[in-house]
């Protein structure tokens, strides 16, 4: 499947990722300033601990709303920042929520205990029994603690993704409980009509973004495009390509380098979403994904029947030509990471060098397609085979294949150890960071 795309817009000095990142930081900073303003307008309690506790609780609520925006999978943000980076920010914002809510609970409890002469535990019990919304806040904080615990590296590595994801869904319950607590007892929330309208607006935008990005948009797109499997083509003993057709695919805003979360609606797999990149640039008629067997889910795709309905969420990812800064490029693929690289080769204009790193020639899936496409595009193709050690993509070897690499964009996709090594090599060769494009698919397959 080889389709040479029309040339995209030329590289620009305006970096989409920097614009989106700056915009997010500006939104968070502006809202933090507004929260601080409404807090001071509401007046201060006599007890300094209660003052600190209320302020920490407000910032915790703001972080919660920002957290929802990060995981809403809004197309504009995702194409410019990428799901991997948004997920990383989501993780660190989650720890921010944990610490601000912990500070809120500790300061409020000790502040009221200081005024009432009760012990901390007795004070929590008393507040939960006598003050509307406090019990809901205690439950919400307990949920946040559990989610925070399973987000740690030790727990995350030992939990199946489905289990981890299911536990995280309780975060939405915590958000609702925290919001009702804020409405019931938040002095800043009720201090003025402007403050009340502001907080309703913040929560409305955050929850609305999640509803649109995670539910409305995927459902609408799938109802519109009616995706089905049109062909299943084995590429090797453990690699298979699936072709997907549907209606109006020319209106699906997918680009080479992006991925979808695919659900094949069979009796035994409809509940499981598999994240796979497109292995060919979208041509408006069909989509293709190429999958290497890595478990029961991916192995079962070889046996999917033609005509099977597909529910696809996406497209996702910032690993696209949108971010190129130079007229010439280097595409570096490792193993099955060749799938988005092969798609990008179709779309990129200007002279391109493709480097495909595999252990043996037999592992070089799609190599024939790459060779054919490279000939059509006038690109240089290097197949690099051999064991992991010695490093065949070390600075000397990479500079030999691409002497002018520091003046090119570099698109990189492959196994995490290989990507880490190549990124180190690119730094040693003086390739500017803004010219290096990669996406870590730890959450995306």
Automatic annotation (TrEMBL):
It is a multi-pass membrane protein. It is found in: Membrane. Its main location: membrane. The keyword Protein transport does not apply. Gene3D superfamilies: Nucleotide-binding domain of ferredoxin-NADP reductase (FNR) module, Translation factors. It comes from the Bacteria. One of its GO terms (cellular component) is membrane. The keyword Iron-sulfur applies. This is Oxidoreductase. The lineage of its organism: Bacteria, Bacillati, Actinomycetota, Actinomycetes, Kitasatosporales.
């Amino acid at each position: 499947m080889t389709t040479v795309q029309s040339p995209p817009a030329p590289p620009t000095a305006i970096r989409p990722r920097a614009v989106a990142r700056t915009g997010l930081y500006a939104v968070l900073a502006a809202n933090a300033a507004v929260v601080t303003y409404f807090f001071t307008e509401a007046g201060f309690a006599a007890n300094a601990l209660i003052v600190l506790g209320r302020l920490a609780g407000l910032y915790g609520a703001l972080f919660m709303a920002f957290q929802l925006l990060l995981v809403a999978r809004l197309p504009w943000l995702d194409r410019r920042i990428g799901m991997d980076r948004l997920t990383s920010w989501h993780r660190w914002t989650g720890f921010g929520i944990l610490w601000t809510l912990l500070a809120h609970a500790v300061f409020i409890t000790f502040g009221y205990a200081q005024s009432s002469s009760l012990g901390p535990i007795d004070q929590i019990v008393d507040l939960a029994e006598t003050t509307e919304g406090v019990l809901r806040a205690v439950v919400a904080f307990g949920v946040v603690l559990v989610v925070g615990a399973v987000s740690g590296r030790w727990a995350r590595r030992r939990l199946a993704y489905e289990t981890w994801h299911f536990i995280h869904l309780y975060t939405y319950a915590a958000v609702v409980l925290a919001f009702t607590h804020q409405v019931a007892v938040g002095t800043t929330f009720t201090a003025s009509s402007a403050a009340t309208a502001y907080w309703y607006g913040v929560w409305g935008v955050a929850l609305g973004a999640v509803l649109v990005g995670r539910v409305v948009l995927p459902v609408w797109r799938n109802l519109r495009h009616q995706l089905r499997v049109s062909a299943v083509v084995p590429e090797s003993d453990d690699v298979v390509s699936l072709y997907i057709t549907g209606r109006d695919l020319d209106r699906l805003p997918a680009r080479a380098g992006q991925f979808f979360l695919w659900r094949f609606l069979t009796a035994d797999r409809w509940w499981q979403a598999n994240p796979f990149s497109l292995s060919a640039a979208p041509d408006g008629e069909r989509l293709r994904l190429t999958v290497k067997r890595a478990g029961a889910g991916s192995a079962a795709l070889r046996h999917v029947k033609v005509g099977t309905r597909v529910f696809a969420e996406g497209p996702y990812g910032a690993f696209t030509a949108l971010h190129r800064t130079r007229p010439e490029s280097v595409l570096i693929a490792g193993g099955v990471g060749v799938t988005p690289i092969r798609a990008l080769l179709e779309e990129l204009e200007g002279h391109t060098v493709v480097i495909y790193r595999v252990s043996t020639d037999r592992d070089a899936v799609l190599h024939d397609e790459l060779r054919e496409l490279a000939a059509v595009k006038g690109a240089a193709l290097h197949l690099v085979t051999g064991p992991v050690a010695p490093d065949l993509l070390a600075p000397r070897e990479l500079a030999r294949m691409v002497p002018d690499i520091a003046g090119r964009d570099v698109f990189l996709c492959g196994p995490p150890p290989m990507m880490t090594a190549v990124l180190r090599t690119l730094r040693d060769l003086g390739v500017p960071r803004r010219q290096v494009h990669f996406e870590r698919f730890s959450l995306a397959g």
